[in-house]
Amino acid sequence: MQITKGFKYRIYPNLEQQKLLNHQFFIYNQAYNISLDLQKKQIQINKNLDKSQRTYLTAVQLDNKVKEILRQRELAFKSVVTQQARINLLRALKDKTKGLHKI
Q1: Cα–Cα distance, 71 to 93 (Å, whole number)
Q2: Contact at 8 Å (CB) between 39 and 93?
Q3: Is 85 in contact with 28 (CB distance < 8 Å)?
Q4: At 41, which helix (H) or strand (E)?
Q5: Which long-range contacts (CB under 8 A, 24 or more apart) does 65-69 make?
Q6: Which of 32-36, 76-80, 93-97 has the highest mean pLDDT?
Q7: Is 101 helix (H, G, I), strand (E, B) or coil?
Q8: Half-sphere exposure in the Cβ direction for 75 (13 Å, CA)
Q9: What is the pLDDT of residues 42-56, one digit of tens each?
Q10: CB under 8 Å to 90, separation ≥6 — which residues?
Q11: Which of 45, 53, 22, 37 is nearest to 89 (CA)?
């Protein structure tokens, strides 16, 4: 039997910390949307191909493309934020496709 405890924390950031948090939230949002756009393009390219000919971006390739786009937009970011956005996007897409198969 496994017991999981949950904790809630409340933070009170000062103005500078709030600005940094908002910036990281913005970068995460941008990275997530860029990743989603890249995945959509890849699906469109692959939809008319035979299953054996389909290719998808690897995690490293996706991360590199997202970082390149963020650099082009001249946004300061941390790699961990872009990686977490990719992980959450892939998890969301996986959950979405599971739901489609149940219909």
Answers
A1: 25
A2: yes
A3: yes
A4: helix 15-46
A5: 65/34, 65/38, 66/31, 66/34, 66/35, 66/38, 69/34
A6: 32-36
A7: helix
A8: 21
A9: 989 998 888 888 888
A10: 59
A11: 37
**CB environment 15-39: b (16+ within 10 A), e (fewer):** eeeeeeeeeeeebbebbbebbeebb
How many CB atoms neighbour CB 85 within 10 A? 24
The pTM for the full model equals: 0.80
DSSP H or E run through 99: helix 79-102
Q: How far apart are CA 65 and CA 49, in angstroms?
A: 23
Rounded CA separation 11/53 (Å): 50
Q: What residue type is assigned to position 83 of the chain?
A: Q
65 DSSP 8-state letter? H
Tokens of 64: 């590199």
Return the residue matching tokens 């949950």: 6
